[in-house]
Structures are given as C-alpha cells and as structure tokens.
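Quality-control log, excerpt.
Job 1 of 2 completed; input and output follow.
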Amino acid sequence: MEKKYRVIFHIDLNAFFASCEMAEDPTLRDKAIGIGGSSNRGVLTTANYVARKYGVSSAMSVMEAKRLCPELIILPVNFDLYHTYSEKFFSVLSEYSDTIEKGSIDEGYLDMTALSETMHPLDIANEIQQRLLKEHNLPVSIGIAPNMFLAKMASDMKKPLGITILRKRDVSEKMWPLPIEKMFGIGKKTYPNLKLLGIRTIGDLAQYDDAYKLGLVLGNRVDEFQQKAFGHDDRTIEPDRYVDMKSIGNSQTYAQDLYEYQDIIGKLTDLTRKVVQRLQADESVAKTITIQVRYNDFTQINRSLTREHHTDSFYEILAIVERLYDENQSDKPIRLLGVSVSNLIDSEHFFRQLNIFQMTDITKKDEAVIRVLDDINEAYGQKIIKKGAKK
C-alpha cells in the first residue's frame, strides 16, 4: 500500500567551520572566532555564535569584524579538517536512513518515512542531534516536514541546536510572516524585484494574484514558487542528484577571486558558450544543466536543473545557468566556476512536439537563426545582437 505521507529531515550543521575548530580545541568554545581572512583586508568565511552576538558575520572584512569585536580570534581556513568532520556527520546520518541527499559539505536531506513508523520523528531528531553533539561536538539544526522545501525552511527557523516541525497546516502561521528573502530559492537578484511589486513576505507571494507581473520577475516558475509558498513540493530525495553520467563541461580556476556579480555572470557566459560549442560539435542535445561553484575556502556547490525538453541553444542553456547561480548566490569570494550539460541524446533523435498554443517554441528555422547569432556574438566576444520578438 502506498504511503500517504512522507517524513523528511533537513539537517544543517551550525557555523560548521567554526564548530570544527571548537571541536578540535574545546578552549575556543566560549571565545569569539572568525574563519578566513589572512589580513585586515581579508574577508571572513564564517563566524561562531559568540562572535555573531557582536554583529560579526560571513563576508565581513576582518577590519570591520575586529572593530565590532576586538577580542575576535581569526583562524585560517582548514578544509582538510572540515572534510573529516563532514564525513563523520554523514556517517552518523547513514545509520538512520539509506536515502540521503547531500546539499553541501554541511547539510543533507534524509527520508525518514520508514523509521518514523516505529519511532516518533521528534525522538529521532533529538537522538541525532545529541549524538552529533556528544560524539563529535557538532551542533546541528533539524527541520522536520512532509517535503524537502518545508524541511529546509524549518531547519533555518531555529539556530543553533534547533529542532522545528513544519506541517502544511502550520505554513500560514509559521512561514508566511517571514521576509520574502528568507524563502529558499529566492535569490539576491530576485527578492528586490519582488519587493517592487509589494511582495515583502512569503505570505504576500502566496496570495499575489497578478500572474503577469509575477512572471516578469519569476519567469515560468510562478506556479512553482507559489506552490512552495503554500507548502507544496513534490520532489523526492535523490542521493545521486548531482552525479553526472555522460556529460560535456568546462570549468575554470581563477588566479584572482571573483567578487562582483557582473564579472561572475560574464565568466559563466564564457563557460556556457564553450560548452554549447562542444555540445553542437558533438551533434548532441542536453536536458540537464549543472553549475559548479567553488569558493576561496574550498567549499563547493553543484546545482542542476533538468528541462522538459532537450536543447543545444546557447541562450536557453545560459538562462538556466544564470538562474541556478542567482538562486544559490553566496557572499563568499569565488575561486572556480564550472558549467556542464548531461542527459544527452543525439540531435538526430531529438523531436519536440509543437503546441499550437506555444508560439514561442523554437522551430528548426529559429534554431538556424540562433546559431547565426551565436556566431556573430562569438566573433565580437559579447552579446551584441539577439533574436527579436515577432510583432
């Protein structure tokens, strides 16, 4: 018999880098700690909660952090240490579920539906939290919900050492009052534009009834975001979500860290163009687009999106690359960027069913035009010309 509900945990390590340092040296536990920044001009990767009480935060300059907290202890990034503790973290989680999806080095989603049939989810969460604290000195916050989106939102509601249950029936009370920028998936580029529409909270987004205006900001994801604002998310946990099989990709490590948004988008555009050229030369089309971002503290994220249809269009793939980056921006300086495409098939086997009501679908003639535009733009090294809209 099919289960009528799921129990999903999102478990997030609190101030992970600082927690690792305190786990190694307990004498640091009651002291203000900042990680990163080798000089006063350096930038902090993170800070522990003692330092945060003084207003110290990630992406803050060391000079400003020391002004706020003169006793701040600055420690260098030690990625080998963080990797070791990350393995300990996921090793404990694997004792409770076979279905785990790593969000990053310090967070993961677990499907706890099976175990919850014999043990209350709150008891499981308490046990995991206490074990990580006692065995490895790692504090975590845990969100418990019927889907991945709500579990992620719940884990952010109480830090450090929080456990939050977020049911669909609690969404209007617990989630709707939150500022729109607190909604997972709404990037730093997006929420200012939503505020221009008068959308200041998650509840405002859920109840906003002008789909046209929302579409100007959210594109074709209006329904997805409004569904999530109501607490709906049909995704399932996929342990191999970010494992590519056959793929085409390019990445670049930069001698100087990248800070500025436009510079980062420019680099992603260059990488996307190279990937699309290789894709077209391979006479293939792709359905899944992935970006890789490695920060100057050597932490890394991989984010993917699978389209409904395959494509080898530069502009279609670039739009997804930009969207993936916008939704996962961090204040940390970037050392490496990568773009790849996967889920490939031969171009000759690709047929798209045209819908007479979707007048913007790209026909073979349109694709030929786009390829010419790509060639022109490549020759000039920038997007100086684009396809216009039909009147």
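Job 2 of 2 completed; input and output follow.
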Amino acid sequence: MEVKVLNISGKETGAKVQLSEEIFGIEPNDHAIYLDVKQYLANQRQGTHKSKQRNEIAGSTRKLYKQKGTGGARAGSIKSPLFNGGGRIFGPQPRDYSFKLNKKLKEVARRSALSYKAQDNSVLVLEDFTFDSPKTKNFISLLNALNFANEKTLVVLAEANQNVYLASRNLQKAKVITADQLNTYDVLNAGKLVLTTGSVKTLEEALAK
C-alpha cells in the first residue's frame, strides 16, 4: 500500500511511503482485537475499591437487647450488616484486574487494528516534524492543515518530542504517542491515524513477521 507523504502544512512533499502488507494489509482478527482491548481496559483499573466488613466496623459487640420476649427479630452486634452503619455483605475488596496475553496475539491484534484503519483510508503519513515551542496553536494549525480539526486524531511519532506532546495535551480529540507505545485500543479509538515517516519504520521493525 503506497501512501503520499505530507508536510505539516498539509501539502504533498513528493515522497511516498510503502506501507507493509504484513502490517497494514492482513485479514483482521476480531477476537485478537477483543482480547487485547479487554486487557488494556482491565489494566487501567486501579482495583483499590474497598468496603468494610463487620469485623472492620467501629462499634460495640454487645448484644443489643435480650434474645426473647421483645416481639422483634433477634439481634446481636450493632455491626451486623442488617443495620445502618453495619458492615457490608460481600462488598468489593482490593484486587488486580490485569491478566496475561501472549506476545504474538497482541502483535496480531495491533496489525489487525492498523489494517482496519488502512482499509478505511484513515491512515496518513507526515514527514518527521517538531515545534519550536510547546504551543497548542501550533498543533491546532497542524490539524486544520490536515482537515482533522473535528476528528479524533492519534499522532504516532518515532521518538518522544516534548514540544509536540505538550502542544497536544490540552486538546480533547488529539493524542500523541511514540511508536513503541502504540496499542490496539488507541488505534481503534481514533478516527484518524497520523504516522510520521520515522514511526512507520519503527512499526515495521517491531511488527513485521
């Protein structure tokens, strides 16, 4: 798949990049995508939710009233889950939601996500660029030049660039990552995928069979 290379002004540079069929042209594996996205979202969960059981509630353990003769149900400690302020039955406890996936399966999922974007003509290649200063207006100008102002855009750089990252940080629909941070969820969550020529090479080295 051959794609024209643009500059940050949105104009063609005359150069072209050949996107590997092994990465951008495979038959997508939907189940691999599902598992990889499920793992990504699970890993985002802190798992710090916690409610107190009856043995953790502050309060007396004395019997509230005598066992018989009151006409009411028998009751023990005020910390019983049946009373307001008592412990919670089967409440949430801290846990780790992460789970393991094979490395090859994750690679298949990423290639599948990239192939979906390529099929939808949602992949654009820019020449490597940087900004002189971390100003949001610079990034907005870039999106306007590409006609992506109203699109959810994922920009993939070959290596970290502080000015580009900071310029995009305040924009709700824009996200900047490096090629080694690329994941299935971010690719599918974006409406448009913008790669730099350097990031294309990095992805091919990482994902090519």
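Post-run check on job 2. The longest helix spans residues 103-119.
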